[in-house]
Structures are given as structure tokens and as C-alpha cells.
Amino acid sequence: MNYSTTTGAVFLLSLYLQYILGYTPQKAGLVLLPLPLIMVIVSPIAGELSDKIDPRILASVGMALTAVGLSFFSYVGFFTALPYVIAGQLVLGSGFALFSSPNTNAIMGSVKKRNYGVASATASTMRLSGQVLSFGIIILIFSLLIGKVQITPDTYFNLLGSIRVAFKVFAVACFMGILTTAYGKIASL
Fold first, then answer.
1. Cβ distance 94 to 42 under 8 Å?
2. Are residues 164 and 9 in contact, defined by beta-carbon separation less than 8 angstroms?
3. With pLDDT > 90 as the criterion, what percentage of the chain qualifies?
4. Is pLDDT at 22 greater than 50 in this prediction?
5. Superfamily of domain 2-188
């Protein structure tokens, strides 16, 4: 669920920055750098913490931060300030990093050594399935709200609405992911 809610975020932000805010592709790329940079910083810390704290707790906290970060972007508009976009990326990236390393730790720690290959392959399959689902959701929302038209200034209002709806859908799905993770923790006690 986490990958299906986060994969399309960079794509949506790129469209938002270029079409709605009018940034060049190069400037949009630079503005999107805080997301991977914060992930590079937080991921190793999250990995170390997941050796000391139940990885499911860290993954749940990561999902919560991810949901908050996705929610940030469901309120972007035609005049959203750049610091808001950067702050949203920092929250989103921190959440994703707090989820990913502990999640992998929990998966690999739950199987015997002889099953590491199967567990790793299954986790990769789930990640890729989530990524595909993410773009399927975006395409569905764009098809319903924008239609089969070229993106021009006349369609920017619909594009912005589609981006907001996609981020809301992803945030709600991510919040549901928190509940399933928390339920899994409660059920295992």
C-alpha cells in the first residue's frame, strides 16, 4: 500500500511544478531534490532504529508521516509558495524512509535464512505492483477529471484538481495502511 501511494507523488509534483507553477524542467528537477536527499539521510537511521525498536512501529510512524506529506500536496494551488512544497517533500521523504528500511527489516527478519530469496523476490514484486497501481490510479483520475485532451493553459484548472484528488486518494490509502499495520501489530500480540 505504501508504494502505491508514494510512487506517483514525484510524477504529480513534476507536473504541478511545470504546468501550474510554470517552472522549467530543470528548475522543477532541482525543486524535487529535497525528497530523495532526505530519504538518503533518514533511511540509514531508520535501518539502525529498526534493529532496536519493533520495525512495525517504525513502519507505522513512517506511514503516518507519509500520509501527512501526501496530505500537504492535496492543498497545493496556483500560488503555493515554494517553501510549502519543500516542507511537504521533507515530511513525505522522511515518512517514506522511516517506512522502507524497517519494512524490509521486518520482512527479512520474519523468514528463515533459506527463504531469503523468496522473501526478497516477494517484497520486490509487492513494491513493483504498488508502483504500477499508483500510476493506474493517476491515469484513472486524470481520465475522469481532465479527459482525453492535451494539457494547455485552458486545462490547468482541471489538471490542478486532478493532482489534488490524486494526493487525497493517496493520503487516505496511506492512512488505511497505518490502520492495517497497527491491526497487524495488535493481532500478533
1. yes
2. no
3. 62
4. yes
5. MFS general substrate transporter like domains (1.20.1250.20)
